[in-house]
Amino acid sequence: MNMFTGWRAALRIARRDAMRAKGRSALVVAMIALPVLGVTAADVTYRSVTPTRAEELTAAMGSADALFSDPGMGAGAIEQMPDGKSYDVVPDDTSQPGGTSGPGIDMTTALPEGAHAISIETVPAAATTAYGMATTDIVELRTSDPMVRGKVDLVRGSLPRRDSEMAATEPFLKKSGLHVGSRITLRGPERTYTITGVVERPDNLKSAALYAEPGAVIAPWRTLAEHDKKILPPNTGSKEWLVEGAHGAGVSWADVLAANEKGALVVSRQVVLDPPPDSEVPMARSMSGSSYGGSEELSAALITVVAMAVLEIVLLAGPAFAVGARRSRRQLGLVGTCGGDRRHVRAVVLSGGLVLGGAGAVVGVVVGFLLTVVFRPMIEGWAGHRFGSLAVHPSELLTIAVIGLVTGLLAALAPAIVASRQSVLESLSGRRGIRRSSRALPLIGAAALLGGIAIAVHGGTSGDSTPVAGGSVIAELGLLCCIPMIVGLLGRLGRRLPLAPRMALRDAARNRGRTAPAVAAVMAAVAGSVAIATYMSSTLAESDFEYTPSLTPGTVALIASDGGATPQLPLARAAVERNLAVNGGHADLGRVWAGSDCAVYYEEENGCGSVELIKPTGKGHSCPLKGKGARALAASLSAEEHKKLMRSPACLDEFMYTTSFQGGPGGIVLGDAKFLKTYVKLRDPAAARALAAGTPVLLNPAYATNGEVTLKAVHTYNDRDKKNRKLHPGKAEIRTDRLKVYQAPEQYATTPGVRMIMPLRTTERLGLHTEVYGSVYTVAHAPTDAEDQRVSAAIELAGGGMHLLSEGGRDDRNLQEDTILLILSLFAGVVTLGAAAITTGLAKADAEADLTTLSAVGAPPGMRRTLSGFQCLMVALTGVLLGTAAGLVPAVALRLVDLRQAVQDMRVEPMNSAYTPIVLPWATIGLLAVVVPLLAGLLAAAFTRSRLALARRAG
Questions:
Q1: Which secondary structure element, helix H or strand E, spans residue 394, and what is its range?
Q2: Which segments constitute the ABC3 transporter permease C-terminal domain (predicted)?
Q3: What are the tens digits of pLDDT across the range 786-815?
Q4: Which residues of 127-139 are buried (b: 16+ CB within 10 A; e: fewer)?
Q5: Pairing relationship of beta strands 697-698 and 587-593 according to DSSP bridges
Q6: Are residue 540 and residue 683 in the same domain, yes or no?
Q7: Same domain, 673 and 718
Q8: Strands 209-212 and 133-140
């Protein structure tokens, strides 16, 4: 029998064996197809969601030939790179190097001769909604022009063609509660428009904006502002033009250079896709080539992911081939009796891997591609932009399929070697023989585990991530080698357990060949998920430490935009109390100033006066992380000590920049006991009595010495403020007063926006000016979009000039990160359930004779269910616990890398935070360690038949 004939016969035997054992074959095909499916979907999605250069140009300029813009450098000449990403002014005798602002350019002189152009201009405006009023961007663009296709596309309805019509994006309609046909009024131009259609930006599906015809919003708004000084003119941004070359010639590099001479910046499709040589680019002489890393790291990460996927498939599918070879040992023995040797037995088992691996690879690639097509809208919504096209690279898909095929062969390799070593007599008689576990393997694994941990920790402490990755892999491989021993030890723990768990543990220990790979597969999946989740949770805790809130939690603030809006405050309060979930009444918020009205801007220093707290010097007052000796001190501190010092009152203002509610520095507000309770959350009767008696309440004790603070006030006047001129005639006067204060507990020093609360009686005594310009409220929850729009509309009806501040926190960040953590948990959970189910199914198929004997000796019917449930539970729980331990190694080591970098930055700049916590993702660990194993056990018990089917008597 030559090699070709032997393999042809082996393939035929493997195909027939796969058709006979359809359940086991489907299991192996599924295990190989699932990762191939995932990699195929990821490859097609990544290639499709990553825009090409041509697709980026279409998103920026539609079907136009070029995008012209005013870079804001005046009418002088500029020079640019062909892609338009780098540009600068051309220095001459009248311009300053680096660019200067000046009058805008006349774009009509910069356009190529005979070119057709349409303008793009954006302005923010307040628009009425179904709930009230919201601020959004208004884009003036002729969306009906063919050049816009690809930049703005119509989804439904019709495009605006008259000045009274607008188109809206889907996010704006969802936020505002409007629809096609709704009427919308813009505050500013005070005009009403009809929404005629829904459009989208393919490169930004989350954009909330309105689109109008050029001249429909901005021009009438400007005209109205010129005649009515109470109306502010529109605050427009830079203007752009979509340009189409004459007679379809496009915009050449010569046209770009000519436009640069007029001061225009140009991004030309023709030039970007076919750039000129550097010798024709004036700016290229001053630009040095630069390369950006990342491709090697990306390739390494990709290889690692593929290797781990192959490892998991081999670990999961290998036991299935082993059981298949064991069930077919009589057939394999007959091969030997017919003259076949070990090579032919190995060929039969390997052919099974080839047949099932090929089937799994084909099914995975086809289904992965089809799923990407079906879920394309969902993927585009999650990514935030449309696919330019469904990108399919046949070479990559073929490589993925080959990896699946090779994986099947690798999964069958070990069972093939074991089957070939069995004697013909053992195969025909059904004896398994005695196989002992290797004693050297656990020792090697323990050494690799300890060595890998040491390498990873060394890499973390030295700040090098390469040893961290290598050490983590070595530690995980070492733990893999220890799994058979761990499974064997678990079998000894069942001596005092009831029958079902005792049999499950002993069966797992006796058949380590199928139990250990499944536990290892679970461990590998859980280790990756726990590592990423731990690192993410730790970095989130670090960013939360550095985050500075704008308001105290659970509060909102109603603030007057200027002094003239203060009379509308009562009506604005009513709007807030009617539309928000307010707990209790409001607390007045007032500002304190000296001299002129601070609501008016003056160019001279202290033109409107100032009031500030003077911070004493010395220990307990000055931050030791600033000034002389700060670097030496920072170098001697641990991360926790540095964190504690940064949060101390003396350093708090250096770490958290304190501003008053009106935006200026100082943090001195006018308030009473109700403000203490509502905003500061300080329920101290002594503090309330102090305010009532005219004693200020100091929140940051670093400003006090012996219970007193130093207050510096610069009193000024101006010709517009006759009242203040009478009070403070002449030049600016500087006064310094010592005030006795009540010191609040140290933890209230972090109150956003407030250092000290001044009672009205004290300001009158010091000759300071005060004004109640806002209110603060305690709310049950942060305002929703609808509530915020209702309040804005009510305030506008009351006369405007007020705005609502709320602390949004980091909800968007937390939502995104929580989604990632949930996906990781689900992935690890699915692999855990799959591995446990495979092991349970193989155990049941492998031990059918034992189960028959168990039933014959009087075991109750439910024993089969209980035994299957405990077998599944044991595999899942063991793999999860080991995976959690393995996943902590790279996560902790990478945080040590971050710590070293943070300490180095701290020593350069002592106020840089060195706080790098290690936070365990208890929610993810709890889901994987408790919920998933229990679910696996319950599902295994539920899907196991209680009674045995009648078996045919052998012989």
A1: helix 394-421
A2: 305-423
A3: 888 988 888 887 777 788 888 766 554 554
A4: bbbebbbbebbbb
A5: unpaired
A6: no
A7: yes
A8: parallel
